[in-house]
Structures are given as C-alpha cells and as structure tokens.
C-alpha cells in the first residue's frame, strides 16, 4: 500500500538515530515509525531477511591505462520503499537499471546497466511500518552510491489521492531537483502513451528537498518518480501481482514504462559525456 509522504514538509535533513544532548529529537513524518534506516536496522524486533531486505549492485571500475579513460556508471536507480511497502517499485527499479526482475539477467542483453539499491519490506502484512521517508534515508550503501553518481532516479509509489488526482488515476508524477532530467522523463513517458506530469506543487512528493536521497548526487540534483497504485497494478498480470510472482508477470505496459525511463537516462547522460 502506498504511503502518503516521501519527505517532511519542512524539508528536514536526514535524521540521526538519536538527537545530540540538548537538542530536540528530529521530526518524524506522520506516517513513519523510524527516523532513519539506521534506527530501523537497530531495532532488535526486526530481522533482516525476514522483515526487510536490502539489495544493491555497484559495477566495478578498473582503469589502469594512463592513455585512456574507462567509462564509469553515471546513474544509480533506487527503490527506497520496495517489496511490500510500495508494491511494484522493486521490479521497476531493477528493470530500469537494466536487469530483468525475475532472475536479474541483463535486460536488454546489450545494456546499458546502472548501479541500483533497494530497500524492501518482506512481511506478509504490515510493511508500511518499515517506510523511512526519502530525506531520512541514511543507508550507507544508498548514500555511497548516490554520492558517487551524477544522476539518481528514485522510484516510489503513491495513491491517486496523494498525487492530487481522481480515484483510479494512472499516472507518474516526476519530481527531483534536476530540471533537464525531469523534462526528459515527462517527454519520454508521454511519448510512450503514459500519463506523466510534473510533481511541482505536490507537497511532500515533489522530491525537491536537498537531503532527499535522489538529490544526494555529485551534482546535488536528481529525479524522483511517484507511480500511482493503479498504474502499477496494470503493469502486472491479474492474479499474479503477488510478492512471489510479480517479477515474472510483467506486462507490456511495465516494459514501456521501463524503456521510457531508460531513454530519459540515456538523454541526460549524453549531455554529461565530458564529465
């Protein structure tokens, strides 16, 4: 089930586990149980691999030739609320990164592939309690991947109501602090026949806080996708949209969405060839 808030309205920075002596405790979004990933990982009531899981891939770079320059991975794809927290976002994250969500084979085989990081709720129920707002995401690998990338695209899920739309709306709201990346994403989704609108003005899901994980890049900007629940539901075969079967039940709409996102990534990276 999609939650209603990605980041505090005040745009607070990622919070530590405990406040320093003499200071106020960090404010929590109304829907969040934990003030950070670190706090969640430290909860003895939670078991990694049972309640939640983390997956990532960082591609190696080996450049020992002084006469040349090896290419580096410019973009990281992140799903901070994957698994049962915001259903379908894990699969979208992996596919946008260039890996088939069922088996993780490169897809398409010719690439390109991108670094990725996912945090996933693994419970049968109650995954909403594992949501950590994007500005409070302090997972070491997530921060490291973002900080070493020129671009991050973070994939989230939201309800139509949270997006300010009518019930049943099938759309993706595009946010983040990189205006060119946002523009390319809207253009590519629109060209693919997918309703895409700017998240500007949608308080809490616009992805414009500097501390949002999507903006913690080398450039200090990134992109955020908020995909409505009804659009995500139409990406998977009816009756097979379950944690165990979702990755192998993708429909053409899923791959159209993925191709559009990858096309936008290619466009923004083409402008960064000298970096």
Question: What are the SSEs and their pairings?
Answer:
Layout: H1 37-41, E1 52-57, E2 75-83, H2 89-96, E3 115-121, H3 140-147, E4 151-158, E5 172-175, H4 179-191, E6 196-198, E7 223-228, H5 229-233, H6 252-270
Parallel strand pairs: 2-3, 2-4, 4-7, 5-6
Antiparallel strand pairs: 1-3, 5-7
Helix pairs in contact: 4-6
The total of beta strands comes to: 7
Q: Main β-sheet, in a few words? A: 7 strands, mixed
Q: What is the topology, as strand order, of the major beta sheet?
A: 1-3-2-4-7-5-6
CATH C-level category: Alpha Beta
Protein model, in words:
The protein is an alpha/beta fold. It has one domain (37-57, 73-270): Poly-gamma-glutamate hydrolase, zinc-binding motif (Aminopeptidase, 3-Layer(aba) Sandwich). It is built from 6 helices and 7 strands. It has helices spanning 37-41, 89-96, 140-147, 179-191, 229-233, 252-270; strands at 52-57, 75-83, 115-121, 151-158, 172-175, 196-198, 223-228. It has a 7-stranded mixed beta sheet with strand order 1-3-2-4-7-5-6, with helices on both faces. Helix 2 links the parallel strand 2 (75-83) and strand 3 (115-121). The protein is globular and about 55 Å long.
List its salient traits.
275 residues, alpha/beta, Aminopeptidase, 7-stranded mixed β-sheet, 21% helix, globular
TL;DR of this structure?
This protein is α/β, with parallel strands linked by helices. The chain has helices at 37-41, 89-96, 140-147, 179-191, 229-233, 252-270; strands at 52-57, 75-83, 115-121, 151-158, 172-175, 196-198, 223-228. The protein has a single domain, classed as Poly-gamma-glutamate hydrolase, zinc-binding motif (Aminopeptidase).
